[in-house]
Every structure is written in structure tokens, then in C-alpha cells.
């Protein structure tokens, strides 16, 4: 059984970029008779917006999405994450890190992915015992190679390109990479369709899957919508919330963005009619093999 998921963060209402990921994931799974789940990635309370999770679910419902099973909230799964951290600590893969962002910025080398953690706290003598510690995963010069259904072969040399990465932050919050891997494994997710902004994160997640001896899903990274300045549509770039009253038009626009070439007349049809067209005509091979595309409303 194919199982996919859409996993928004409740930091604000859904915008057009979010809708692209939801539609692509939904169609790719449903058109292969798969299940489609919703998971709320509410791991970072300071960034979350009150009522955003419920608003997201109402918006998805208003657009005609139908999901399987109950919605999973990561904020309720701390025990599962702590159990995995304990297992990795016991195996020697995880270690405490007291480095500040400033220290990492001064000591680490910068590249296209950011600043590479220099491995300072691998040495217990270099840790500041008076500071709260994060938890980092050793990468040990591991190279990860995988084939993305749209973007093709992708690889990273984790230690030199990324460095040992966080699984729990100094403020006590669990890191995205930990939660997403644990939850995908527990929910039996087989096919992940999401935005290309997460392509660079995938090797870290595959590495963690390998350490935990859980299956690696197939990955499909869709083009990300960016504004005229090349910025990803997001709350930070003032991306407008999608309007449920414009659901038919917006669904047509997403299908067009994803290269499906919907008929222009379809733009004025009802939402069920457009969904029916999408289920009949969806072809992943038509999605442009690019990481970003400009979109403006």
C-alpha cells in the first residue's frame, strides 16, 4: 500500500506555495490508489500562530482534500522522540553540544548549505559544562546518494558539506529531522512528495533512517514557488493566505504551475470538476525539472 502525507507547520495560514505541495502529494498518492495522511508539524511553539492548525485543516477541507485517519500532532509525540534519542545516545552516535551560533559561525566553513559544524564538541573537554546542551548526530564522513523522481540523482558528503547536525536544540525543542524520520517510519510513509526547498535536507533524513534501520521512502521534490525577488513564498516574505472562496481558480493555477496543462475553460468550472480532471490527467512526468519557478498573483 502506497502511503503519502502532507505535513504543514502551523506558523500561519496556508499560502500558494503550501497548496502546491499539498496538491502534488495528494494527486501522486491518490492516482496510485494510495492513502494520504495529514501531520501537523507543531514542534516550534514560539513560531506557531494560535488557531493556525485548525485554520489549515479547514482550508484543506474547503479545497476538497480528503485525508485518511486522524491528524497526527508532533507536539504530542515527545515520548517517541526521546526514546530514539536515548537509543542513539547509547549507540554513541549522539553527543551534547554547547556551541553557540556565533561560535559555530566563527569556526565553521560556509558553503551553499550554510555553515558546516566544525565538530568542536565531539571532544568532551571542549564542551562548556555551564551551558545548556543541544544534541548532535555524528556524520562520520558518510556519503548519501539517492534518486529523486523529478530532480534526479542527488548526493551529499554529510560531514564536509553539512557537519554533525542537531536532533535536539539547546532550548529543549526537538529538531525537524528527528521528528520527520520517526513519524514517517511509524506511519508507514512510502512516498514523500514535497517542495524542493527540502531537497538538501533529505540526505540527513536518509542517514538517520539508516541508523534507525527503518525503510527509506521514495522522494519527489516539486518546484518551489518564488516571488520576483527569488524568495520562497512564506510568511516571512508576506505570502498571501489562500482564499477558500477562490478554491477552483487556485487549484487550476496549481495544476498549471505543475505543468499539467489544464484547459483554460476549466478555470471557470466547479471544484469537483477540476479535481476530476486532475485525477484523470495527472502525470508526474509533466512537472518541470527545476527547483524554483516564479509565481505572482
Structure description:
α8 (247-257) packs parallel to α9. With 297 residues, the protein is an alpha/beta fold. The strands form six sheets. The chain has a three-stranded parallel β-sheet with strand order 1-2-3. A three-stranded antiparallel β-sheet has the order 4-7-10. Strands 5-6 form a two-stranded antiparallel ribbon. The protein folds into two domains: 3-76 and 180-294, Rossmann fold (3-Layer(aba) Sandwich); 79-176, Rossmann fold (3-Layer(aba) Sandwich), CATH 3.40.50. It has nine helices and 14 strands. 32% of the residues lie in helices and 20% in strands.
Structural descriptors:
single chain, 297 residues, alpha/beta, Rossmann fold, 2 domains, three-stranded parallel beta sheet, three-stranded antiparallel beta sheet, 9 helices, 32% helix, elongated
Short summary:
About 30% of the residues lie in helices and about 20% in strands. The chain is α/β, with parallel strands linked by helices.
Structural class: alpha/beta
β-strand number:
14
Note the total helix count. Answer: 9
Percentage of β-strand residues: 15-25%
Q: Which percent bin holds the helix content?
A: 25-40%
Task: From the alpha carbons, calculate the radius of gyration and give it in angstroms.
Answer: 20 Å
Compute the average pLDDT.
94
Name the strands of the widest sheet in spatial order: 1-2-3
* Dominant shape: elongated
CATH architecture of the largest domain: 3-Layer(aba) Sandwich
User: Into how many domains do the coordinates divide?
Assistant: 2
CATH superfamily placement of the largest domain = HUPs
Given as residue ranges, the uncertain stretches (5+ residues, pLDDT < 50) are none
Largest sheet: 3 strands, parallel
Distance between the termini: 37 Å
The CATH topology annotation of the largest domain reads as Rossmann fold
Amino acid at each position: 500500500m502506497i502511503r503519502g502525507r502532507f505535513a504543514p507547520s502551523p506558523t500561519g495560514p496556508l499560502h500558494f506555495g503550501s497548496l502546491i505541495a499539498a496538491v502534488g502529494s495528494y494527486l501522486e498518492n491518490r492516482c496510485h490508489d494510495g492513502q494520504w495522511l495529514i501531520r501537523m508539524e507543531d514542534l516550534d511553539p514560539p513560531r506557531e500562530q494560535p488557531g493556525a492548525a485548525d485554520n489549515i485543516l479547514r482550508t484543506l477541507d474547503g479545497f476538497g482534500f480528503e485525508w485518511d485517519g486522524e491528524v497526527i500532532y508532533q507536539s504530542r509525540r515527545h515520548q517517541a522522540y526521546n526514546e530514539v534519542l536515548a537509543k542513539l545516545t547509547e549507540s554513541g552516535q549522539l553527543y551534547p553540544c554547547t556551541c553557540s551560533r556565533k561560535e559555530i559561525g566563527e569556526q565553521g566553513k560556509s558553503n551553499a548549505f550554510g555553515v558546516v559544524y566544525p565538530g568542536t564538541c565531539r571532544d568532551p573537554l571542549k564542551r562548556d559544562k555551564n551551558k545548556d546542551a543541544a544534541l548532535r548526530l555524528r556524520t562520520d564522513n558518510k556519503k548519501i546518494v539517492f534518486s529523486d523522481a523529478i530532480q534526479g540523482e542527488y548526493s551529499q558528503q554529510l560531514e564536509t558539506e553539512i557537519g554533525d547536525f542537531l536532533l535536539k536544540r539547546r532550548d529543549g525543542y526537538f529538531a525537524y529531522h528527528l521528528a520527520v524520520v520517526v513519524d514517517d517510519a511509524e506511519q508507514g510513509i512510502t512516498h514523500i512528495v514535497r517542495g524542493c526547498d527540502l531537497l538538501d535536507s533529505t540526505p540527513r533524513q536518509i542517514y538517520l533512517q539508516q541508523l534507525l534501520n527503518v525503510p527509506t521512502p521514495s522522494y519527489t521534490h516539486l518546484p518551489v514557488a518564488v516571488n520576483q525577488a527569488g524568495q520562497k513564498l512564506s510568511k516571512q516574505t508576506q505570502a498571501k493566505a489562500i482564499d477558500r472562496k477562490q478554491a477552483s481558480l487556485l487549484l487550476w493555477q496549481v495544476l498549471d504551475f505543475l505543468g499539467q496543462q489544464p484547459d483554460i475553460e476549466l478555470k471557470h468550472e466547479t471544484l469537483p470538476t477540476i479535481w476530476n480532471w486532475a485525477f484523470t490527467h495527472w502525470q508526474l512526468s509533466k512537472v518541470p525539472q527545476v527547483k524554483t519557478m516564479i509565481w505572482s498573483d
